[in-house]
Structures are given as structure tokens and as C-alpha cells.
């Protein structure tokens, strides 16, 4: 990645984040690998943004085909109708940025055989051979797939983001899940999951879910923004961030794990997290929130502690003419009071009757 500011450098605007002190080392993104599960309205735009940001490696999971009904969304084009979503996405993404390694997986991760393939893919899908992916992004539209991702990430102790858009297309959310530290998707499951309801029975005949490219784009933007903050260690990563388009409301919250979660791997990760020494946890948080300094300090600006900058109240005024910058001078010098100078009394030996007499003569 070059930081050279020229029109032919596709990374110059991204590298400017480093020069402005937002990101310490933007080049680190080339060493990051992200798995995007579900290449639909949110997932396709998410993959697009990460590719333009120069991510090192993308793993795409989906088994659907591109349809003309998808054209109300972003990313896909009519000429791609009939192609598998991962194939169509890979072609477009490779054209946008050939530096990114694109790996496609065209299968349903919720089946028994394919779940094992999914586990293997994210366990060894890192940029460095044999390493796991750095982050998993769930962009699926059903609870069955979300539960499969949740199970896999709990088992492998991988951090992941869950995302979704409502059926009426006017609200959405993202949720950052760190196994053992925050609530997993099974800790507080939706009713359809808790009651083991078949999602297919909930669909009404002749009625499909609504979809707005605006809501999809906003949720994808929130997802990628927090992904970048997590991967490049800047800003604050939201545990849960919602969006209500009707009133432009963005709720935030944190969800604690359920000690009696049905997922045994979640309970195991909770026990491991509780056993972790507090000093290790604090050191990790400190390293993630470490302030990023500007590369250049043209004006010599320094930060001074308030107690160091404030002069002592009981100190005597003294001449500072010798400390002034060249070209400046004081209008007058404060008088120097000797320590052994006699103190003058502020009260005279005059009685009250004498004062009254003086006032009556005025």
C-alpha cells in the first residue's frame, strides 16, 4: 500500500487516515481476513466496501442465485441474473480491486456435512496459512443460519458480527458477539428460535419481505465501520447498534451472556473468560484504546498536566522578562516585595466618636 498522493493510487485516500492520526497503521488491513456469510442486500454491499478498503482476504458464503427481484438492492446488476451470488460477487470484486484474495463457498452452511466444511473454512481461512479468519460477519436473512454461525464461532472462540434488517425494511441492527464476554445469539434467542418454530410456516402466501436499498446500505455501512474499528484498533466498537428509519433513532446497548445458555460452548467460553486474570484483560483493553499520535507536529504543540501548568497560589510574583520569547517584552515589572519589609497596619487608632465628628464637618 502506497501513501503517495496521486490520482493513480487507489489507496491514497485510505492511507490519509494514518497521516491524520485516525489509524496507527492502515497497512495492517492487508493482513486481515474476513468471512461474509450471506451475499444478499447487506452482505454484498459489505463485501464491496471491504474490497474497496483493501482487505487482505474475503471468504464469501451463499448458495442462492442472483434474481431480477434483487435489482432493487445495491451491487448486483441485471446481466448477472442466474449466476450464483458468490460467483457474481467474486467477478465484480476482483474487477474493483484485484489485490484482494476472494474465496467462494457455494453451499448451505446449515446442513450437517456443509457445517463441517464451514468450520474448516473459517478455522483455516486466515491470510497466513493455517490461521483462522480475523472476523466473521453474519449477513443472512434467517435464524437457522444465524444459529449455525453462532454455534461455529462459539466452538472456535471466534469474534463475529450479527446483522439484520426487519421484514418491513425500515429498521435494522448490528451486534458484536465475543464468545464468553457478551451474549451469544442463543443467550437471548428470538421467539422463533426459542419455540423451535419452522420459519417456513411463518411466510404468508403471496407476500414477500420488503427491501429498501437505503436501509440495507445503512446497516452495511454500520457493519463495515465497526469491522474496520475492530480490525485496525481505532474508535469504539459498538456491542449493539440499531437503526429505526421511521424516526432516525440509533439505540445502543450491551448484552451480558446467559450463564444457563443452551449452547454448551458458550458456557465453556464464559468460564474461560471468568478465569482470565484481570491484569491480562486490562492490558488488552489498554492496547486497543491506545491513543494514535500524528506523524508530524509542525507547531510543536505539547500537552501539559493542569496541575503542572497552574502556578502556585501562595508564590510571590517575580519578573519573567528573561523567560519571554524573543521580540516580546513586559509593559511593566511587578514590584518585588522583600520578605523582611515592615508590614503596614491597615487600621488606624481612630475612635468611632472621632470618625463621626469628622463626617459631621464635611
From TrEMBL:
<feature type="domain" description="THIF-type NAD/FAD binding fold">
    <location>
        <begin position="11"/>
        <end position="261"/>
    </location>
</feature>
<dbReference type="GO" id="GO:0071569">
    <property type="term" value="P:protein ufmylation"/>
</dbReference>
<dbReference type="GO" id="GO:0071566">
    <property type="term" value="F:UFM1 activating enzyme activity"/>
</dbReference>
<keyword id="KW-0862">Zinc</keyword>
<comment type="function">
    <text>E1-like enzyme which activates UFM1.</text>
</comment>
<dbReference type="InterPro" id="IPR029752">
    <property type="entry name" value="D-isomer_DH_CS1"/>
</dbReference>
<keyword id="KW-0479">Metal-binding</keyword>
<keyword id="KW-0547">Nucleotide-binding</keyword>
<dbReference type="InterPro" id="IPR000594">
    <property type="entry name" value="ThiF_NAD_FAD-bd"/>
</dbReference>
<dbReference type="GO" id="GO:0005829">
    <property type="term" value="C:cytosol"/>
</dbReference>
<protein>
    <recommendedName>
        <fullName>Ubiquitin-like modifier-activating enzyme 5</fullName>
    </recommendedName>
</protein>
<dbReference type="Pfam" id="PF00899">
    <property type="entry name" value="ThiF"/>
</dbReference>
<keyword id="KW-0833">Ubl conjugation pathway</keyword>
<dbReference type="InterPro" id="IPR035985">
    <property type="entry name" value="Ubiquitin-activating_enz"/>
</dbReference>
<dbReference type="InterPro" id="IPR045886">
    <property type="entry name" value="ThiF/MoeB/HesA"/>
</dbReference>
<comment type="similarity">
    <text>Belongs to the ubiquitin-activating E1 family. UBA5 subfamily.</text>
</comment>
<dbReference type="GO" id="GO:0046872">
    <property type="term" value="F:metal ion binding"/>
</dbReference>
<dbReference type="GO" id="GO:0005524">
    <property type="term" value="F:ATP binding"/>
</dbReference>
<keyword id="KW-0067">ATP-binding</keyword>
